[in-house]
């Protein structure tokens, strides 16, 4: 079985986000970028499945400008066998990503498609659900445990829901999106970083895949959230009720 993993290049989680002076978006020039943390978890899970003998190949795919290849190289250094880069001039909205992924799935025919549950730049949490709908495949989102049964061609997925854990049995092929507790992603070792330089990366344009990239969204302005005012410590519940009633007017 082949596993396809979607990995996105995002501003590193440790970077303090800065808004561009013209308020058109977030500053990404001269900013440390890395693989979206949930995508690292997705790739780690695919590599673990391959190492347990249940998959033969792990293919990492990314969509975006040419520097997204760095993220693919990181994925190849972690252990992916090959990469696919779909070059797009700007960031794609989840529906466009899902449409491109659908075409890649038709070309590659994977038995399992693993994504992060969300990208930490836009926090959309949409792409996994959209690609599952476009393909008509079963989906296990927010996975905290994945067990594959090769004989029965089934994936058992524990998923984190509001009330606790839910367990789903998915017929393969299926889409899985990863939550934080699924695994601890590995670091790429220096020899593997060197090896990754010679692993193949196939390039496509959206036109070659026959996907029209468009967005129904227009960014009007990006601004910082308002600064929080200092809190006050109240001496009694009566005082709290008084403030909620007469100052905040919420009760
Ligand atoms: P989102 O729906 O934007 O929060 O993203 C959820 C997941 O979709 C990410 O963790 C990735 O696995 C995948 N994804 C989103 N955008 C891209 C992209 N441009 N390239 C590759 N994978 C992506």
Could you explain how this protein is built, in words?
With 251 residues, the chain is α/β, with parallel strands linked by helices. It has a single domain (2-226), classed as HUPs (Rossmann fold, 3-Layer(aba) Sandwich), CATH 3.40.50. It has helices at residues 37-51, 69-78, 94-108, 127-135, 190-196, 237-246, and strands spanning 2-6, 9-11, 33-35, 57-64, 82-87, 112-116, 139-149, 154-161, 164-171, 174-178, 201-204. The strands form 2 sheets. It has a 9-stranded mixed beta sheet, sandwiched between helices. Strand 7 (139-149) and strand 8 (154-161) form a beta hairpin. It is globular, with a radius of gyration of 21 Å. The model has no long low-confidence stretch (mean pLDDT 95). Adenosine monophosphate is lined by residues 6-8, 36, 38-39, 42, 62-64, 92, 94, 97, 115-116, 118-119, 122, 124-128.
Query: What is the CATH architecture annotation?
Result: 3-Layer(aba) Sandwich
Q: What overall form do the CA principal axes indicate?
A: globular
SSE succession: EEEHEHEHEHEEEEHEH
The largest pleated sheet is described as: 9 strands, mixed
Unreliable sequence segments: none
Which cofactors or ions or other ligands sit in this model?
adenosine monophosphate
Question: How much of the polypeptide forms β-strand, as a percent range?
Answer: 25-35%
Number of strands: 11
Widest sheet: strand order? 9-8-7-10-6-1-4-5-11
CATH topology: Rossmann fold
Oligomeric organization of the protein chains = single chain
Share of helical residues: 25-40%
Total DSSP helices = 6
End-to-end separation:
59 Å
Q: How many domains make up the 3D coordinates?
A: 1
Q: Please state the average pLDDT score.
A: 95
What structural class do helix, strand and pairing data support? alpha/beta
Report the C-alpha radius of gyration, rounded. Answer: 21 Å
| Highest CATH level, the class | Alpha Beta
CATH homologous superfamily name? HUPs
């Amino acid at each position: 079985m082949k596993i396809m993993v979607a990995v996105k290049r995002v501003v590193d989680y440790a970077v303090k986000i800065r808004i561009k002076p013209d308020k058109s978006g977030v500053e990404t020039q001269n900013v440390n970028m890395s693989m979206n943390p949930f995508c690292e978890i997705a790739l780690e899970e695919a590599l673990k499945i391959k190492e347990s003998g249940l998959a033969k190949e792990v293919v990492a795919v990314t969509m975006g400008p040419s520097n997204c290849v760095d993220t693919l190289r990181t994925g190849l250094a972690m252990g992916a066998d090959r990469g696919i880069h779909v070059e797009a001039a700007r960031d794609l909205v989840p529906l466009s990503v899902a449409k491109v992924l659908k075409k890649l799935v038709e070309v590659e025919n994977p038995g399992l498609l693993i994504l992060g549950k969300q990208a930490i730049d836009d926090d959309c949490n949409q792409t996994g659900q959209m690609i599952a709908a476009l393909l008509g495949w079963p989906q296990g989102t927010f996975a905290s445990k994945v067990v594959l049964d090769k004989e029965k061609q089934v994936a058992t997925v524990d998923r984190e829901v509001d009330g606790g854990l839910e367990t789903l049995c998915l017929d393969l092929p299926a889409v899985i999106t990863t939550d934080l507790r699924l695994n601890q992603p590995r670091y790429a070792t220096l020899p593997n970083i060197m090896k990754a330089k010679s692993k193949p990366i196939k390039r496509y344009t959206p036109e070659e895949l026959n996907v029209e990239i468009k967005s129904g969204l227009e960014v009007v302005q990006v601004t910082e959230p308002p600064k929080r005012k200092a809190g006050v410590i109240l001496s009694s519940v009566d005082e709290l009720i008084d403030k909620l009633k007469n100052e905040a007017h919420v009760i």
